[in-house]
Amino acid sequence: MKQFEDKKVENAMIDSLTGIDWHETTPNFNNLFATGAELMFSPLSQGLEAYVVKITQGEKHFVLKVWNKRSKPDVLRQYHLLEALQLQGIRVSEPIGYGRTETGDAVLLIRYHGTAVTKVSPSIFKRITAVLADIHRLPPEGLEGRALAKYDFVGYFFQGIEAFPQ
């Protein structure tokens, strides 16, 4: 039964890849589909915001996230932020493509370079801390434009508060 479900998911993902309107892509995106090599799809553990699947093509691995749940973040901004962080030398996932499904859900395709953290150790915490420290050392001016958003604190966290004048 599990094999049938995996095949069903794989067929749905192949269909959904062709149904994505890609708005931003990198040369690696074109290479992914130009080779004609077989793509293997494996569902990954989902979070609260998106459906996640691993795509394997030979020795290359990618992750496709489809925000088809209630959470609707600015995925294009995430794509640009990953690009900008990479240009600054920060070790983050390489963005490959951004688009929208036929139903309007945002999609992000990134390079897959590892595994989920399921067991923590001091060395893992050190690596995570080093990446976060690198990000916080960046001057915001280097990320201005499409990658870095500025929001009014009250309006962002308390949407609709103006309806309560108290």
From TrEMBL:
Residues 42-142 form the Aminoglycoside phosphotransferase domain. Gene3D superfamilies: Phosphorylase Kinase, domain 1. It comes from the Bacteria. It comes from Paenibacillus phytorum. Transmembrane segments: none annotated. Coiled coil: none annotated. This is Phosphotransferase. InterPro entries: Aminoglycoside_PTrfase (IPR002575), Kinase-like_dom_sf (IPR011009).
